[in-house]
Model the fold of this input.
Amino acid sequence: MYGLIEELYPICRSITGNGVRQTLERISRRVPLQIHEVPTGTQAFDWTVPREWNIEEAFIEDADGNRLIDFADHTLHVVSYSVPIDEVCTWDELRPHLHTLPDKPDWIPYRTSYYKDNWGFCLAHRDLDRFSEGPFRVCIRSSLTDGSLTYGETIVPGATDREFLFFNHVCHPSLGNDNLSGNVVMAELASRLRQRKRQPRFTYRFVWAPVTIGSITWLSRNKSIVPKIHAGLVAVLLGDAGPFHYKRTRTGSAEIDRVVELVLKEQGVAAKLLDFSPYGYDERQFNSPGIAAPVGRLTRTPNGEYEEYHSSADNLDFVQPQYLEESLRVLERVVTVLEGNMCYRNTAPDCEPQLGKRGLYGSTGGTQPKEREHAMLWVLSFSDTQHSLLEISESSGIDFDVVRAAADDLLAAGLLQPCTDE
Amino acid sequence: MYGLIEELYPICRSITGNGVRQTLERISRRVPLQIHEVPTGTQAFDWTVPREWNIEEAFIEDADGNRLIDFADHTLHVVSYSVPIDEVCTWDELRPHLHTLPDKPDWIPYRTSYYKDNWGFCLAHRDLDRFSEGPFRVCIRSSLTDGSLTYGETIVPGATDREFLFFNHVCHPSLGNDNLSGNVVMAELASRLRQRKRQPRFTYRFVWAPVTIGSITWLSRNKSIVPKIHAGLVAVLLGDAGPFHYKRTRTGSAEIDRVVELVLKEQGVAAKLLDFSPYGYDERQFNSPGIAAPVGRLTRTPNGEYEEYHSSADNLDFVQPQYLEESLRVLERVVTVLEGNMCYRNTAPDCEPQLGKRGLYGSTGGTQPKEREHAMLWVLSFSDTQHSLLEISESSGIDFDVVRAAADDLLAAGLLQPCTDE
Amino acid sequence: MYGLIEELYPICRSITGNGVRQTLERISRRVPLQIHEVPTGTQAFDWTVPREWNIEEAFIEDADGNRLIDFADHTLHVVSYSVPIDEVCTWDELRPHLHTLPDKPDWIPYRTSYYKDNWGFCLAHRDLDRFSEGPFRVCIRSSLTDGSLTYGETIVPGATDREFLFFNHVCHPSLGNDNLSGNVVMAELASRLRQRKRQPRFTYRFVWAPVTIGSITWLSRNKSIVPKIHAGLVAVLLGDAGPFHYKRTRTGSAEIDRVVELVLKEQGVAAKLLDFSPYGYDERQFNSPGIAAPVGRLTRTPNGEYEEYHSSADNLDFVQPQYLEESLRVLERVVTVLEGNMCYRNTAPDCEPQLGKRGLYGSTGGTQPKEREHAMLWVLSFSDTQHSLLEISESSGIDFDVVRAAADDLLAAGLLQPCTDE
Done:
């Protein structure tokens, strides 16, 4: 996964343009993607797909032709969606177009101006020293033309058409955690699910798309899929050293909420649960009142809560392989628990069935039963169609896997029937 | 407000009689009142309007004609509703009719005997010393005759006939906090609401009536209004230095409960929330199972919890202008929040509407939105007809006024529709 | 009660056989029982009534004819349901059939093998010293034959056929707390209820039966009674010095749950409330999803949580008369509260009825009402058919008995009507 990040890091992505296309092309070497192009001007609910932005070159030179800033050095140097310009201007004219982080004088900030025609440069505050009185030549060779918005998706078919949707944004330029980390963890997870021999219970859909306009465009073209979304995760910011943060769905009572909470608790590491708020990433769109899909968000440190956020310090050092792997492991566990979290009907509900005669229970009475036997009693007692295995695991305090295994034994013995809720 | 208290303080009020009439007449100089007279003998649910009580003079003299107690000195000296008497009696005959507070030897207690024919005097325990062996002449020139029970009300019409009812009792004699404080704060609040240029959303009704029999009589004559009561407050005991105490409605889940809780929290001062109990003031009647109107109670220190309660120490010193003003401010804020606490439907519910193109959102991306922008996102996300602005303020932690202003901006932009629940 | 325990202690009980018959016969001298015999082979839901087990003699002798263990010394010496045997065997053959408690070298464990043909001896770990090299003669003169399973019950008829079921197990051999304590407390409680002059509101049923197969058999023969079970308790392990433990019904929201919680709180002693779990005694069967009867469990120290549990140390010293009496007192109180926990409709629901004119309220106003008067106001306010007296006691903080007495006064005054929910 880290290797793929290194490969993707230099590409200048934005919400449209060739950067996204190149990125999706590289990801599709890891897992086959279907690439969608949505033309400029397409209506997407209240929004319109914008013109496509591409950039070749950008710099500021002093009167002597010395390059004071050069886009070739870092993709963050240019405000994303800057209009083309090639002019000579004074310091006073230039200054409002220069963005820095005075508190972090070595870092270049990340800025965008998608929906208002403007241009600008971002640079380390310290580098303002390079600017003497002027005049300066400002050159941005960008283009804003009718084109398209690009996103990619891949589907792993399951036994039902009810979906588990994984969504991540793919529009940020050279920022490692936000969100190359999510892009590569999703690619790896999708690839692994595709390679599984046993068909999963749910259909898995992975979408790589630009933030906000991407999810809005995707939703406007896939509204018929929304009722099939059984669970979803915006899974992003997965490569830093921080603890996991799970942001709940808008109701806070979806199955995905309980599953992720259980999985994070299992990890035994500090993790934080956040109630839904309508600010963040694409979970905003999935949880809007007209969509209301049960989509939560899993990150490590959330957006805006680490100081490297949206700056050049969110780089290849900030993201580390072991954190990507840990994030992948957690997401695989989420899949496992959701897949296994069934609801059953006890087929012998009057009193306990006699487990001993089926070889499921120790035969010498008077001693305490083993954990597996306990788990069978719990599953039998609460398999009244109202309690899922996850809930049984929560009330009993018995590990989900032990509860799941007990249910498998009982299924094999004909003592349970799945509730056909799908 | 304090001036009006000074004016009302010397008047001897009871549950009927000229004291109440004089009091309502003075209040009506501040805000016009409609005065109602309900004849003695009128049935009011399980109760009957009692005979009217008036008193001219009352005293106890010793054998030498020295006045040991004189009603002219303090209205509390006579047990309210004492029957007329003019007799000579011994100390042993007199003693059971004398009420004192041995623990507070300088204070005169307040006692009543509305529903059992009796007579009595209240005096400072220390003044028992004035009584030698007797005999004593006991004289109470009172009258108990067919007359009427008097109450006053004023209405400020709103856009709907759903009402916000303010009820306060007006039957206590020279007691400052209980309840001249409530009488004058209500008068001031009613007067201010009348003077507002903009018509309020709710119709406001203020009632000044005797305690218990007054609210029972009012309810028995206005039962058709009960279903229109959207919210109500018994607002009394508002002039002492103690912290606010809000007593919830019987269910504890009415809108008025949440509104007052929010307002008291906003004040940032220690306030106490009490669950409903069927003892106290007229909230008992409004919350009885057959009425079940959502009426809470706001006081500062509650009845029975300050030592001056129901004694001559609840006087013009115990009540102070700054506390009356603070109480008025809190009640005005309750009105403001209840008026503004609407529920909306997001008219662009599929994903977020594009706020930027409507000038409602900052245009340079990559930075954190401002509080007002946050508030707009919250309102849009939760305007699914199920959440009021107050609830949105509570879950977001954003001040109610900011949420309200954000909703106003969204309304102006056509992005919200009010839920016509009235 | 302790005398009856002493009488029952030496009897060798098991889940079937003459030990249970003798035990029920002795209990029926205290309270008349109806004895039921259910033949071997009878189907009971998923179970089958097993063969009847009886035992005459059992011992192990060394080569010199010295008895190393003798069933005549203690009923626990033989694994319950041991098949008959009379053989000579080596130490290696014998050892797997010997059960000891190495941590408690002086105690004999209690072991059973009801559903797998086997045999064994239980002995103090210290007594393994008696065994030299062997050979040993092993003799168990037991019989496993077609017979029947025996249980006893007694019914105290009430005004309705809705039942309060008390269930206790009667299958353990010489173990004092588990469960002779329950057997005798139930006998005493049943006897006292029978002797009451006033017919109770509920019908009381007491069942003495073997654990697990007993409750399963009882339920399979009485499924039509299940819907009539208004409340139930498995009341066992009632003679040790430990604190009370109440295990809730499966939903945790049955009336019996609230009643027992109130009663234990009233005791003012440390008591513990446990959520339902499907391991324990016969509450497992009553709470299985197909039965779902509201049956909780009251014990002192629960099964498995005292070290004497299922060993010879659970003897006549471990159980003490004062704890039996305290348990009986608590259970009688549970009966009293459940009997008195009615739900009413206030017949004068519009405002408060005038209590004073009915002699129910103090006549001199201005002072605080007494607790009984307070209780009447609470009952009137919450007698809206939705709140039981127990709930009113809980919300008001007024003792249940005071609330009950207030309701009786109001009933006498015609101010309440019972909700005929039965």
Summary: The two ends of chain B are 34 Å apart (CA to CA). The mean pLDDT of chain B is 95. The CA atoms of residues 209 and 397 of chain B lie 40 Å apart.
